[in-house]
Amino acid sequence: MKRKNLFSIIALLLVFLLLFTGCNSISKTKQENLEAALEEEIAEEFTPVFRFAIGSDVHISAGDSLNTERLQQMIETAYRYSDSHPTYQALDAFLLAGDNVDRGYDEEYDILTDVLNKGIRPETKLITIMGNHEFISTGHEGYVRHMGEELDKHEVVKGFHFIGISPDPKDTWQTPKQILWMDKELRKAEKDDPSKPIFTMQHGHIWNTVYVAHDWYTQMSLPLHMVYSKYPQVVNFSGHSHSPINHPRGVWQNSYTQVACGTLFYFELQRDIGDTTIPEDARNAAQYMIVEVDAQNRVKIQPFNILTNDFMKTPATTDDPAKQLVYFIHDVKDKSSFVYTKARKKLATAPWFEAGDEITIDETGAQHVALSFPQAESDECVYGYRITLKDAQNAGKKIEKEIYSKFYLEPMPETLSAVVEGLSAGTTYQVTVTPLDAWLNAGEPLQTEVSTTVS
Predict the structure, then answer these.
(1) What local confidence, expressed as pLDDT, does residue 10 receive?
(2) How far is CA 12 from the centre of its chain?
(3) Could you tell me which of 328, 213, 261 has the C-alpha nearest to residue 96?
(4) How many angstroms separate the CA atoms of 217 and 434, rounded?
(5) What is the mean pLDDT of the chain?
(6) Other beta carbons within 10 Å of 201
(7) Domains identified in the chain and CATH numbers
(8) If we measure between CA atoms, which residue out of 447, 399, 448, 450 comes closest to residue 429?
(9) Band of residue 36 on the pLDDT scale cut at 50, 70, 90
(10) How does pLDDT run across 97-155, given as a tens digit for each residue?
């Protein structure tokens, strides 16, 4: 085994120990009280004194104008919101967290810089970092030549610190030297004002923190996690995974805050259910975040959906359809006040079907069945469904299929359909459809019976 591969395995094992043995072990009651208090605080008047927009994975391509249009819309909608705000009409910074172009070609950078130069106003600080896709062609040299920026940067905008690191020119991820530099810059930011949030970003997630970070992450997760853990006021943004930012695990808190900041290109889902991580409607992805800070240094993170031209709504099917999805940090320095922790799993209520809901058999064949069913209800998010067909004469013989709920779409479809294949002809099957929540907790299933045709 190569030494580099061995190092990567050891590093991931250490991250596993840090992120799982060090998870929040607060009581269910305390977690409930924290969430209730935060809900009340979110509902209160919030007067921002600072604002920025952040997105990731734009993937500008000369052969695909859709991503260019979405970047233009990101800029336009961020300014539209800022300009119309009743108390604070400013967009202080605009951030892109890597894979800003798809292959690093010069013509892609020409499109990117043209959009940014025309759209970003002089009073808004533009801060970008590289991802891994920029290295496919021109790499570091092309980024610096077109963007006029260094790989790693520490910017201070109206007293708020932004620290970003890009992949090293000789690698697709960060180096130990960059990690040490990040630690040094974080010390400077903390010394400047220890009560303020410090905003950091790198392209890849810290492993196994936010949704899809189990599959897509930076190989330097361990050293970065160790550095960030020294500063609870760190709010770290990353992309790379193309994960939907309305998944309940889109924000993770433990010793600091980790945020998945979305994509303008296509969705990718976690490898935990289903037969594919890229759904057929994956291109319906155009999400970014508007982040605000008030005079008390509280942080308000508002996901925005370019396709609906509005702030995103909570994916919980029992909530008011108009209820805005907001992630809120009450006190960046006080880890005991963090809400978006692994402890939320303790509170999760399994999704449920309403009385009268039933499975509809749309078509039967010798080896397949097509069926449909209504979406289940949930206090937070219906994530997916497990469809099981058991041979009525042989209970040990069954076929299972898992599908996503399409929680990432707005609005979610009211009914889902699926085709289950690989069945035996002329056989009667017991059919169950089991709803799953964001933590894969299973609710009570719907049931019916179906017989395949004789071939």
Answers:
(1) 57
(2) 21
(3) 261
(4) 30
(5) 92
(6) 25
(7) 15-346 (3.60.21.10), 360-451 (2.60.40.10)
(8) 450
(9) confident
(10) 999 999 999 999 999 999 999 999 999 999 999 999 998 999 999 999 999 878 899 99
Phi and psi at residue 155, in whole multiples of 5°?
Answer: -110, 145
Shortest CA distance to 381 belongs to which of 433, 305, 318? 318
pLDDT tens, residue by residue, 191-239: 999 999 999 999 999 999 999 999 999 989 999 999 999 999 999 999 9
